[in-house]
């Protein structure tokens, strides 16, 4: 919600700037024309524009600024971008001809250099673009299988390039991979269905010709979804290293951010990965030789001012490359058994162990905020108590008003007591642990191992408190209908195997998973994220209450009845018959001392019902507990 609000605010800001700049353009000829790609990196684009406007004003610039957004999305729209750019230039010819054009983003840059005739006589600056580009295709090209040629724009004499460019270095990344893994035979390059992804892929194919002894495997987002990419990664041969390019858009034009690289990582966790664009750094990639990404709005303003101050209006090739540097993940290096001593000089380390305060600053801040919240709550409660008491004393003069006030107070107290009865234990337990162990951390009577154990307890209870809040938010959005479902076709067998792999880490030593579907593949139409949430909740409950034996996930497909029956069976302690209905109520727990919020099954029931199915406990099964729910194969 916050991200959408920010994007909408930026969008309306752009409209406002365009409208005001248009008025100024009528009074002053020769404006500065900024053309932005308006791609998913809108935040970075808007930040650069804001910095440019602020710096240009401070420098005393007098030219009005006009902003045009191309609204580029996935690469499937690439044949249209040239016409978008042409239409923009057609608006600014003759008397409206700009004094300077600034291009922000890869798509705008590619649309400009792909024009047959552009205003080359007008000074041009660019930012957020790469030295290596491709010429956009026409609408007759099969984009899915198109193999464009990588173009070095600095070698094109007709293109007057100036501004700030990224200069990706494939050779250094390949050499880095070889230094770490001398036996590498295959490099699997991951790129998405965006202009940046296709451009990087073309550049990588060109540069990898210098390494004929290494097999290049292309994991192309134009041909794959996130799910098929994960399957490909799981089946990569030995002596393969992943090289991350970009990943935001798959072939279905679905936007995937950091969660996509987590899925790729989990498909083959032992496979080493490197990044040439910072994608995957911090949680998956060991490292890479990547640009030092930063905002360049102020720098562009200074360049623009220098160009516009020249009376002849000519522009020199003021090329500034965003410098590259080596970046590595200290935790991943440690997991791979690699020493930091072998890193190139000047390399930047991420996730490096830091001081106790810096390492646990978030947790300690959260504890302080929780204490402050409780303190504020106490004073608010005290205030309302005193206010209520004063009102009660005043209302004693009128019996009718006193009765009305009393009934209102009793109703408020009843609702408060009902809520506190459900919530007090769940909130008090982690808070007691957080506050208690935070107090003993400052004592000198404990060893470092004991302190670490206290910190782990604080972290665990912080996670429990956060999970409780997330569950409350989830059930609130489900009950109020503010959560929208996105239906797509999903391979049920693949989805279930992925869920079993995800929850396997919480399985106890004496427990085994059993999943033997009758078919190898079966598609249903569902919201994959919500169906995964249901199964993960049920499997997590089974893991929690099963010490030995097995946990079985079964599917029964009833095509004539348009239903799939899911069941999760365990050999745990089971559920008494009289409790099998109430466990789906909010805050219902059979064991008050077991971890959990008591909201998981309530969320499952609401979600199953909204998907068009039903959920229940199998009364006939006595070897533990068995939860069964249905899901339509096709939406009505």
Automatic annotation (TrEMBL):
InterPro entries referenced in this protein's UniProt entry, alphabetically: HATPase_C_sf (IPR036890), HATPase_dom (IPR003594), His_kinase_dom (IPR005467), HisK_dim/P_dom (IPR003661), HisK_dim/P_sf (IPR036097), Sensor_HK_Regulatory (IPR050736), Sig_transdc_His_kin-like_C (IPR004358)
Main localisation: membrane
Enzyme Commission code(s) on record: 2.7.13.3
Domain Histidine kinase: 422-635
Membrane-crossing segments per the record: 364-386
A Pfam family: HisKA
Localization of this protein: Membrane
Keyword annotations of the record: ATP-binding, Coiled coil, Kinase, Membrane, Nucleotide-binding, Phosphoprotein, Signal, Transferase, Transmembrane, Transmembrane helix, Two-component regulatory system
Sections of the chain in a coiled coil: 388-415
GO cellular component, one term: membrane
One function term, GO molecular function aspect: ATP binding
Region forming the signal peptide: 1-21
Superkingdom of source: Bacteria
Catalytic activity, reaction form: ATP + protein L-histidine = ADP + protein N-phospho-L-histidine
PANTHER family to which the protein is assigned, alphabetical: HISTIDINE KINASE, TWO-COMPONENT HISTIDINE KINASE
Designated name of the protein: histidine kinase
Organism, as annotated: Odoribacter laneus YIT 12061
């Amino acid at each position: 919600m916050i991200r959408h609000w920010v994007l909408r605010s930026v969008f309306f800001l752009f409209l406002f700037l365009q409208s005001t700049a248009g008025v100024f353009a009528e009074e002053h000829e020769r404006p500065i024309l900024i053309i932005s790609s308006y791609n998913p990196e809108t935040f970075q684009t808007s930040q650069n524009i804001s910095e440019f406007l602020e710096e240009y004003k401070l420098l005393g610039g007098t030219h009005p600024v006009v902003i045009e957004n191309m609204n580029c999305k996935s690469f499937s729209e690439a044949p249209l971008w040239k016409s978008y750019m042409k239409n923009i230039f057609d608006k600014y010819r003759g008397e409206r001809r700009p004094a300077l054009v600034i291009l922000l983003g890869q798509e705008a840059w590619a649309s400009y250099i792909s024009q047959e005739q552009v205003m080359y006589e007008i000074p041009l600056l660019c930012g957020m673009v790469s030295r290596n580009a491709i010429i956009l295709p026409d609408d007759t090209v099969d984009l899915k299988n198109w193999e464009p040629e990588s173009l070095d724009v600095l070698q094109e004499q007709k293109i007057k390039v100036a501004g700030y460019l990224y200069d990706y270095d494939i050779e250094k990344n390949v050499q880095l991979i070889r230094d770490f893994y001398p036996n590498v035979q295959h490099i699997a390059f991951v790129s998405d269905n965006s202009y940046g992804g296709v451009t990087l892929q073309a550049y990588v194919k060109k540069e990898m010709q210098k390494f004929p002894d290494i097999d290049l495997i292309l994991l192309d987002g134009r041909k794959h979804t996130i799910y098929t990419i994960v399957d490909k990664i799981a089946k990569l041969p030995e002596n393969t290293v992943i090289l991350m390019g970009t990943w935001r858009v798959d072939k279905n034009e679905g936007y995937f951010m950091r969660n996509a690289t987590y899925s790729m990582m989990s498909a083959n966790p032992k496979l080493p990965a490197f990044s040439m664009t910072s994608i995957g750094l911090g949680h998956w990639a060991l490292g890479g030789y990547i640009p030092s990404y930063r905002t360049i709005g102020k720098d562009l303003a200074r360049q623009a001012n220098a160009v516009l101050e020249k009376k002849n209006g000519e522009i020199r090739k003021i090329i500034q490359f965003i410098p590259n540097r080596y970046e590595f993940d200290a935790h991943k290096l440690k997991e791979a058994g690699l020493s930091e001593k072998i890193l190139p000089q000047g390399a930047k380390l991420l996730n490096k162990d830091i001081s106790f305060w810096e390492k646990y600053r978030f947790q300690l801040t959260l504890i302080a905020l929780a204490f402050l919240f409780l303190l504020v709550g106490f004073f608010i409660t005290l205030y309302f108590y005193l206010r209520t008491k004063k009102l009660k004393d005043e209302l004693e003069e009128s019996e009718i008003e006193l009765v009305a006030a009393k009934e209102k107070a009793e109703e408020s107290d009843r609702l408060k007591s009902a809520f506190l009865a459900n919530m007090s234990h769940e909130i008090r337990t982690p808070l007691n642990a957080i506050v208690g162990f935070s107090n003993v951390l400052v004592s000198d009577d404990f060893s470092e191992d004991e302190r670490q154990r206290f910190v782990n307890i604080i972290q665990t209870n912080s996670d429990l408190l956060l999970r409780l809040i997330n569950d409350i938010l989830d059930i609130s959005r489900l009950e109020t209908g503010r959560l929208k479902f996105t239906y797509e076709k999903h391979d049920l067998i693949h989805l279930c195997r992925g869920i079993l792999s995800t929850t396997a880490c919480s399985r106890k030593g004496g427990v085994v998973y059993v999943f033997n579907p009758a078919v190898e593949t079966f598609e249903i139409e569902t919201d994959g994220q919500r169906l995964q949430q249901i199964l993960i909740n049920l499997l997590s409950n089974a893991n929690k209450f099963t010490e030995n034996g097995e946990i079985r996930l079964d599917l029964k497909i009833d095509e004539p009845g348009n239903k799939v029956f899911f069941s999760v069976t365990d050999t745990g302690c089971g559920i008494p018959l009289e409790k099998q209905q109430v466990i789906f109520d909010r805050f219902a727990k059979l064991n008050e001392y077991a971890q959990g919020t008591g909201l998981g099954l309530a969320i499952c029931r609401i979600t199953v019902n909204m998907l068009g199915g039903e959920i229940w406990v199998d009364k006939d099964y006595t070897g533990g507990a068995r939860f069964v729910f249905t899901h339509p194969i096709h939406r009505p």
